[in-house]
Amino acid sequence: MLNENIKNLRKSKGISQEELAIKLNVVRQTVSKWENGLSVPDSSMLISLADALDTSVSELLGEVTIKHDADDIKAISEKLEIINLQLAQRSYARVKTIRWLLIALCLCIVVIFIALLAINGSYMNWDYHDPELAVAGTIIHGFEFLFVRIAPIVFLASIIGIVLTYKKR
């Protein structure tokens, strides 16, 4: 079937085997073998062959393409519109979720800053000869040290993220 389709399409376009071979960068005998059913083109050559014959690969392989009438096209366009609306709603929901997560992150940072202000470094006065207090005090101090340096950057980035999620589309 493929061999007949190649031959019929080539002849309907008024192209000789030699001309088709030149377009595809193959020898004329290769085109002849395809048309006589002695060999078949590989997948990449099949695409090039379809382009050279100004047709689709599916038509070249003998698949019948169905012409859609206006009602089918209208139904397909309505389905695509519904899908686009669903995608837009999903995208908006995702942006809204990100916005609320950023707001929650800002609130957490503020609460931790308030907690750190409330303890006012009281762990510095602990008796560090007690190993348990020494470990706890070191962990709290390390956390406070890192938090005070990193949290403002994260807070500002979160605020910028919140503002960007409110940006009009």
TrEMBL record:
Keywords in alphabetical order: DNA-binding, Membrane, Transmembrane, Transmembrane helix
Top-level taxon of origin: Bacteria
GO MF, one example: DNA binding
Membrane spanning stretches: 100-119, 139-166
Gene3D superfamilies tied to this protein: lambda repressor-like DNA-binding domains
PROSITE patterns the UniProt entry points to: HTH_CROC1
Signal peptide: none
Residues annotated as domain HTH cro/C1-type: 6-60
PANTHER family linked: TRACRIPTIONAL REGULATORY PROTEIN-RELATED-RELATED, TRANSCRIPTIONAL REGULATOR
Protein name as catalogued: Helix-turn-helix transcriptional regulator
